[in-house]
C-alpha cells in the first residue's frame, strides 16, 4: 500500500547552475522540494520516483539522467543517461540517495492506464516521489502563452494536492491538460491510483507560477 508521497515540480531551473543569476528566484521552491523529499525518505517502504516521459517503463534505481540538453554538463546516476527530464530532476533532488526504482509514465497515457499503474505500484509497501509541473499557460510570457483556463486548472490541482483528494486528481482531463501543457497530469494520476481510496494527512508546501508555469510541492502521509 502507499505509505507516503511527495510531489515536486521538475523545471531544469531548479538546478541553480542552470538558473544562473535567476537562481535565487526559486530558493523557496527548492526549500519546499527538499522538505517534501526528506519527508518521503523518512516514511520507509520502497521509494519509487514517478514522472512523465515518452513511454511507460520502469528504470532501475541506478538509472542515469543528464542536464546536457539544458546547457549543463551534469549527469546524475550511473551509465548512459536514459531518464526523461522529470525523473532526472527527481534523481537530482535525491542528492545521491538511490530509490528502489524510477517509473516513467507516458505523458499521453489515459486516466485508466495511470490509475492502474498506481494500483500496481502500491501492491507492496511503497513511498512515491511524484514529479510534475502544472499548466504552462499562466501569463503572456509562459511557454504556452496565456490561457484563461490555466489558473482555475492549477487551483484545482493545488487544492487536490493540499487535501490529498486522489479522486480529483484521477478526474483530471487529459485533453485539457495537454492543451494547457500540464506535464504532471499523468504522474499525478498514478499517485491517485496508488492512494487506492485511503485517507492521508496532506500539506501543500508550494504553489507558485514564477515563469507562467504552475509549480507545486506537497506531502501526503
Q: What's the shape?
A: globular
Instruction: Output the strand order for the largest sheet.
Output: 3-6-2-7-1-9-8
Portion of residues in beta strands equals 15-25%
Tell me the CATH architecture. 3-Layer(aba) Sandwich
Characterize the biggest β-sheet: 7 strands, mixed
The number of domains is 1
Number of strands: 9
The helix content, as a percent range, equals 25-40%
- Terminal CA distance reads 12 Å
CATH class annotation: Alpha Beta
Tally of contiguous helical segments:
8
Which helices and strands, and how do they pair?
Blueprint (H helix, E strand, L loop, with lengths): L1 E7 L7 H4 L7 H15 L4 E8 L3 E4 L4 E2 L8 E2 L8 H9 L7 E6 L4 H11 L4 E6 L18 H14 L2 H5 L3 H6 L5 H11 L6 E7 L6 E6 L1
Parallel strand pairs: 1-7, 2-6, 2-7
Antiparallel strand pairs: 1-9, 3-6, 4-5, 8-9
Amino acid at each position: 500500500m502507499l505509505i507516503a508521497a511527495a510531489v515536486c515540480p521538475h523545471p531544469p531551473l531548479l538546478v541553480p547552475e542552470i538558473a544562473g543569476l535567476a537562481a535565487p528566484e526559486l530558493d523557496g521552491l527548492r526549500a519546499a522540494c527538499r522538505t517534501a523529499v526528506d519527508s518521503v525518505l523518512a516514511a520507509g517502504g520502497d521509494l519509487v520516483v514517478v514522472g512523465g516521459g515518452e513511454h511507460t517503463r520502469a528504470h532501475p534505481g541506478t538509472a542515469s539522467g543528464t542536464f546536457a540538453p539544458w546547457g549543463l554538463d551534469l549527469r546524475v546516476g550511473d551509465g548512459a543517461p536514459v531518464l526523461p527530464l522529470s525523473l532526472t530532476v527527481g534523481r537530482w533532488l535525491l542528492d545521491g540517495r538511490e530509490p528502489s526504482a524510477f517509473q516513467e509514465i507516458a505523458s499521453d497515457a489515459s486516466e485508466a492506464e495511470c490509475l492502474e499503474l498506481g494500483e500496481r505500484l502500491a501492491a507492496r509497501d511503497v513511498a512515491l516521489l511524484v514529479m510534475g509541473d502544472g499548466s504552462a499557460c499562466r501569463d503572456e510570457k509562459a511557454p504556452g502563452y496565456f490561457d484563461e483556463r490555466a489558473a482555475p486548472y492549477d487551483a484545482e490541482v493545488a487544492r487536490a494536492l493540499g487535501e490529498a483528494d486522489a479522486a480529483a486528481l484521477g478526474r483530471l482531463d487529459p485533453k485539457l491538460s495537454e492543451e494547457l501543457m500540464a506535464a504532471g497530469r499523468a504522474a499525478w494520476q498514478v499517485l491517485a491510483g496508488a492512494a487506492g481510496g485511503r485517507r492521508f494527512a496532506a500539506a501543500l508546501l508550494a504553489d507558485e507560477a514564477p515563469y507562467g508555469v504552475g509549480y507545486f510541492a506537497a506531502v501526503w502521509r
